[in-house]
Queue: 2 jobs
Job 1
Amino acid sequence: MPHQISRTVCRFGPPLLLVLAAGCLRTLDESLIDQGQAGSAGTSGGAGSDAGGSAGSDAGGSSGAGGSSGAAGSDAAADAPEDGPRPPVLIPYDAAAYPILTLGAAGADLPALIAADASSVYRTGAHLASTNVSRMPVDGTSAVNIHSGAKKPAGLSAPSASLFVYIVGSQEFASAGTLLRIAKDGSQGPSAPAFITPPAGFPPATSVTAGPDNYVYVGATTRASGSPQLLRLSILAATTSAELIYTSENKDETVGDLAVGGLGSAVCVYSVVNRRLYVMPAVGGVRAPALEAPVDDVVGVGTDSVNFYFTRSSGEVWQRALFKGQACDERGAAEVKIAGGFTGLADVISYDGLVAWAAQGDPGKSFEGGGVFTTPIGGGDVTTIAPADGGVDAIASTANHVVYTTTTGLIRRIPKRAVVQP
């Protein structure tokens, strides 16, 4: 679809209009145009993992509603030579191509955390003294409460290969970290989760994700040098204990987003620690910077079978090939920027040859510039697949849909691919 309508590029004198006429495309900002040829950077990747979860806060509007979406553009790209590379453009949201279904109504437990497996979305409140965990089938049928009384959740993961949802947090913010394993079907009863035993001294847990190796990985906030920071737990074994894979010698480090990628003996963990991105072997070992040119504003990270992707608070989306080798020290070309010019970037995921990310937009301007966006792996035209919708906070992936939260706690569903019009 992008290339079929790519010649309909609207040109505006400054300032560029933020709301476009139907059917018009908008050129992206200079930070994205600097990429040059659309789609030339990076390498092609495989389908992404639907496992894992991330923190989010939420906001509303009626289904399918929302304000303007996308990054502020630049009309400079419209003046590119006709025989030269065409700069990437931003394709506005099309409600007929990407219809929205609301799975969960706005609630009091805000902000919301979500995770997804192939067929359901799981939701809980973030950092609350006591909150419920619910399962919402992606087909829109009724939600089910599967746990009551979760304490200060900070992360949620629902790996497709597991019968359980994993929730990390702490009894109190300054106390030891907690890891709960809850049956997805609620068969344990709403108040009977299994507590996973962390290593001694494990501090408050802050994030959790599932890897392709059938392990769940948990990150924490260190309070002193020599504190445990990363652990993992097999999702296939019946054990309720976890193994330590990394201890930090630095105090006051907080693990943000986590992602795991690789195959066989070369599975690597990518962790955002104090807004910097690191890589290390999944079995434990040396932690090293994951970027050729380290930055200190990384927000989210995701992987597929070929690349890892990350968002920055500068409004940019980047990618780099996965690290290889048992020590996760074999690296390819430096990271490349594949999109830019967004406000309030959060999660990033990959599926079906696309990279998708959430942008909250500007809260002071009705979340202008926000939504859910995709671009081909390596960069190219950017498609808006969900509107600003009152502030998009977090996204996750099911078998056929992208799900997202809003700042008022709505949980929405959109198709991964555009609906073909008759």
Note: The chain has a mean pLDDT of 82.
Job 2
Amino acid sequence: MTAGRTVFALIVGMVAIGPLSTDLYLPSLPAIGKALDADVAHVQLTLSAYMCAFALVQLVYGPLSDRYGRRPVAIAGIAIYTLASLACALAPTIEALIWGRAGQAAGACAGVVLGRAIVRDVYGRDGAARALAIVGSIMAFAPAIGPIFGGFIEVAFGWRWNFVLLLGFALVLLAGLVFGLDETNAHKDPAATDPGRMLRNFALLLASRTYLGYALVVSLCYGGFFAFISGSPFVLIEVLGLSPPEYAGFFLLCVIGYVVGAQLTVRLSKSWGSDKLLRLGTCLNVTGGAAMLFVATAGFATPGLIGATLLTAPMMVYMAGMGIVLPNGQGAALGPYPTMAGAASALMGFLQMATAALTGIVFGALHAGGTTALPAIVLACGAAAFVSFALLAKR
């Protein structure tokens, strides 16, 4: 098998390509609208199209990798991403950019799905949670530094160069996969891509109380985080009056909370085990969400740095819980399925993305210019994750 450091570096690159594709170009959205003569709704479609394609296409990559192996499917996915990135960089119209973004998602989701599956192949059930926690620690800063770096590129070179940078990253990753990755799937299933078999595999996974419980814990916990991603700019900037640089600083604090939780998993996974850590993580989710809602409803979330600090500090607690929940929940969900780890990873990814999209929609419907809708959604997601673990996943 390929040397451990090489495999791990490739896994990080495969997982990184998803968030980088979203975060890097966010500061360029207004410039894209002006350059391509598009209104806000059409520019926002570059995000929506990416999310929808990402959620759906990953359901295909899992079974394909269970049949043909992780390596060829990963190479094909990143190759698609490479071509789509070139199309985005050269897009003459907003419609072309929207289709290019959908193509990017169709390729990027291969990295996320297969990265998790390769972790399961290489590190096994017991080591998967620890490996995913280390990957999560490394990747935790992508949402914080992506917009900052993307903004610098926008100012210095223009919006198209964000996609040129993603193209370069994809070429490096593609070369690494071609020359540095051996096949990790030792249990190829020739029938994994049969439509009936695919449906039966997905039905089998959904019928498993344990798998569904762990997948829901991961999805609901991530849903609370995505609600914060989509809602915090409106709350912290528009309602509480922070400037964009101040907002970036508060978001970075939340990311630090995630790193703390991931490091706890790295240190305690062997002695505590996944279930004990998941209990701790979901309790932190509930605690953080409840404290955040209390600050909002008690009137402490006033405009200015103090109010923003009081409202955001509990989110650090929630994020610490997420740093524990995600790697342990993902590892526990995939652990019992070595022969269809790809399908299990793909289905979990679909549930995670669908839940995230739903929380964003709910925030848009509930937000009325105040501070209570966001923490209410965060608390609801944390509480639902706790209940899913207690009633379904807990062995």
Note: The chain has a mean pLDDT of 84.
